[in-house]
Amino acid sequence: MEKFKTFNGVVCPLDRSNVDTDAIIPKQFLKSIKRSGFGPNLFDEWRYLDHGEPGMDNSNRAVNPDFVLNDPRYRGAQILLARENFGCGSSREHAPWALADYGFRVILAPSFADIFFNNCFKNGILPIVLEDKVIDDLFRMATVDKALEMRVDLSQQLLTAGGWQRNFEVDAFRMHCLLNGLDDIGLTLQRIDEIRAYEARRRVEAPWLFGNRS
Amino acid sequence: MSAKTLYDKLWESHLVRTEADGTALIYIDRHLVHEVTSPQAFEGLRLAGRKPWRVDANLATPDHNVPTTPREGGVEAIRDPISRTQVETLDANCRDFGITEFQMLDPRQGIVHVIGPEQGATLPGMTVVCGDSHTSTHGAVGALAFGIGTSEVEHVLATQCLIQKKSKAMQIRVEGEPGRGVTAKDLVLAIIGEIGTAGGTGYAIEFAGSAIEALSIEGRLTLCNMAIEAGARAGFIAVDDKTIEYVKGRPYAPEGGLWEQAVAYWRTLHSDQGAQFDRVVTLDATTIRPQVTWGTSPEMVVAVDQLVPDPGEENDSVKAEGMQRALDYMGLEAGTPITEIPLDRIFIGSCTNSRIEDLRAAAGIAKGRKVAGNVKQALVVPGSGLVKAQAEAEGLDEIFIDAGFEWRQPGCSMCLAMNADRLEPGERCASTSNRNFEGRQGQGGRTHLVSPAMAAAAAVTGRFVDLADLDKG
Ligand code: SF4
């Protein structure tokens, strides 16, 4: 995983609550057996006027001019501003893959669905929870004529946009992993001895859990 | 020692290690695998030169992409090339890594959340995970079961563990005897209507109370299946005699001395008297009526004898807007009686409601009746090959076919329309599945979530109907 560095990015305001993973990446695109290439179909049903299928040339498709991702102000946005319960629905990791592949690196929302929230960190996306009032303010700031640019500094846990500033909370372990680009599996495999010891204990306590079938 | 919740017991018995900030490494007893969320995990494993930590903890089956029409041609005959690739990729990965798989033509194949309990592969006291949010289903037998993403699938394959933080504990008590025609599905829809789709976010939910105890294990599977629609990754129910009776004799269940030892342990899997929860919600089952969702989120639900709600009466403007958007999408007018909504298609199936009791309930309504003229298609898709065989042994398939339903092969089918079964734009479906999101059953398709009995009643009358009225006439 790449290290998460401080950056300045445009804020794209997606003013809908309960945006689910089916909306983030419609299911016809889940059939890929790869992790990359989902970005062009992010929010496909909202973003294009026709029905999208895998393998289509997206550059020829009619885009929905009313959808925020197609607004020239927000081109190249790296920060998604969202409403409550963002990422609800299925556990599919294709949703953060699509967001990351499109170029989003930070999502700001008043609340996130749990599984999606976890999946973000594993894919180098930083989800930030902010109070409703702050989110409302940001929507106002992001929907004026000129796009809102924001600086995200993870190590300082600080968001800055012009004169506006805000600290945010992030789990210490998650921050450490993001900043250092650490992969969870490698970290866990440093604990091999503890896993083995646990298994040995369980084989005695609960032997029916082991190897009765394979 | 202080009183513990069931969640405390399940959690603590799987702790390998806890960091100072509460981040824990927990051990996973059972990992279920299907074709949609696993290919990238196996790819990752291969790229890193890793092997599965414990092959026998895994059980795989293809379910999302398999056709539900006759399967003589095998995997090669799956028409959609991408669906075929996913199923073939699962077969190849399981073969390469030595993982047990019930392949598409195996009589035990089915929806992963149906076959786990059916095989006794998910047992009380286990931690159960799968790259699928409806893994909460398995909590019905007193397991800690939750959905994970593909990175975590790879993590479990490689380490048999997951990095997790303990959730808060919620207890939802449903007390009293529900009225006639009120099923586990109606209880869970009513719960979601009450607490909202984000009501359980950050919590693990224990369902309890006399109405829950009265449910069969299959009813409990339906209930826990939808814990995730209430925002909770995990939902579970204490072990009781019914649980133990249910597990006994299943292919993966322990036998002999191990069985006795297991049962003694399983008997401890309940919340202790006086255990503390972070939140307790209580519902009165006697007031719950058969439920029908009207919108594009499972919390948009009313009783069958009510009207489609009016956004104009909602004070919260963001909510009112969401309601209006849902009504527009669903093609519904506020104030319409639910019983006047006509249907185009019926889907009886999915990991929520495709077990034998569900099919019996639906067949009970379908028997001697005919699918209404305005209904273009009524599908019955059993949850597994074994459910299908059982239903056929009981003659349920004939009841359905005589009534004009289509009797299909097991899989996810029209629950999410990844195979050929789907709604056309604007079509309206009474569905026993768990999600009514926009486009879930096909682009532009309109989904109403209901119980199997309600779906069958909707099939034979062409609209939603209060089951009590159906008997009258
Ligand atoms: S039946 Fe539906 S909800 Fe269940 S696993 Fe299949 S697609 Fe998911």
Automatic annotation (TrEMBL), chain B:
Q: Could you give the cofactor binding note from the entry?
A: Binds 1 [4Fe-4S] cluster per subunit.
Spell out the molecular function terms from Gene Ontology: 3-isopropylmalate dehydratase activity; 4 iron, 4 sulfur cluster binding; metal ion binding
Locate the residues binding [4Fe-4S] cluster: 351, 412, 415
**GO terms of biological process kind:** L-leucine biosynthetic process
Coiled-coil residue windows: none
| Positions of the Aconitase/3-isopropylmalate dehydratase large subunit alpha/beta/alpha domain | 8-462
Query: Keywords on this record?
Result: 4Fe-4S, Amino-acid biosynthesis, Branched-chain amino acid biosynthesis, Iron, Iron-sulfur, Leucine biosynthesis, Lyase, Metal-binding
Q: Which domain of life is it from?
A: Bacteria
- Required co-factor? [4Fe-4S] cluster
Q: In which pathway does it act?
A: Amino-acid biosynthesis; L-leucine biosynthesis; L-leucine from 3-methyl-2-oxobutanoate: step 2/4
Q: Which residues cross the membrane?
A: none
Q: Which reaction does it catalyse?
A: (2R,3S)-3-isopropylmalate = (2S)-2-isopropylmalate
Which EC class is the enzyme in?
A: lyase
Role according to the record? Catalyzes the isomerization between 2-isopropylmalate and 3-isopropylmalate, via the formation of 2-isopropylmaleate.
Which NCBIfam families does the record cross-reference, listed alphabetically? leuC (TIGR00170), PRK05478.1 (NF004016), PRK12466.1 (NF009116)
Self-association or partners: how does it assemble? Heterodimer of LeuC and LeuD.
- The name on file for this protein is 3-isopropylmalate dehydratase large subunit
Native species of this protein?
Candidatus Thiodiazotropha taylori
